[in-house]
Design brief:
Blueprint lengths: L10 E3 L8 E6 L2 H11 L3 E14 L3 E15 L6 E15 L1 H10 L10 E2 L4 E3 H12 L20 H5 L7 H6 L2 H12 L1
Parallel strand pairs: 5-6
Antiparallel strand pairs: 1-7, 2-3, 3-4, 4-5
Length: 191
């Protein structure tokens, strides 16, 4: 059986970790970032890196703690303009041999503080793909520019148009107009 190939793979041998741990860092090169665009649904991935420390955990396990940094270019869902988002996420991943995970869960369903650890195979972890998964979870699924409005056309109307509000909208301005007055006005336009 052939091992699965990932766009961004950084396999790290964790069999000889000292008790004090091992600091490490990884960074995707231009070719790897280009390969990740389709998987992550991005227009561009300008940078992608992580710094972390690996240390022994629960005997035969490994704890990986660190920070992930990525600069992504996404498409605004309203204006279709490109926008840049910076992702800065802290992470705490734990790995144990599969047998130990199964045994611990069999004895006590609440044996792990937070999440069930990831399985640790042959003493190696592909930390690169875990970082890609963390970026995917951190992405805004509906990226929107802060001042994005629909393109101007006779049929594109925004809430500002219906409420006849100019300038910044606060709760006070919104509260002065009833949503029913907007509906009444819309009903009058259809007739």
């Amino acid at each position: 059986m052939q091992a699965e190939q990932f766009e961004f793979s950084r396999v790290i041998d964790v069999t000889a970790l000292s008790k004090s741990g091992r600091p490490s860092s990884i960074e995707a090169n231009a070719e790897e970032r280009a390969q990740l665009l389709e998987r992550l649904g991005l227009h561009d991935l300008e940078s992608f890196s992580a710094t972390f420390s690996m240390s022994p955990w629960r005997g035969s396990g490994v704890s990986v703690k660190g920070k992930l940094h990525a600069r992504v270019v996404q498409t605004c869902v309203v204006s279709l303009d490109l926008l840049i988002n910076d992702i800065n996420e802290s992470f705490d991943l734990n790995f144990l041999p599969q047998k130990q995970i199964d045994d611990d869960l069999l004895l006590d369903q609440d044996s792990f503080d937070n999440d069930v650890p990831e399985p640790l195979g042959d003493g190696r972890i592909d930390i690169g793909d875990y970082m890609v998964q963390l970026v995917a979870l951190a992405l805004d699924p509906y990226p929107r520019k802060p001042v994005a409005d629909l393109p101007s056309s006779p049929h594109a109307r925004t809430l500002r148009d219906f409420l006849e509000i100019d300038g910044p909208v606060g709760q006070e301005e919104m509260g002065k107009k009833s949503p029913f007055s907007v509906l009444k006005r819309l009903k009058g336009q259809d007739s």
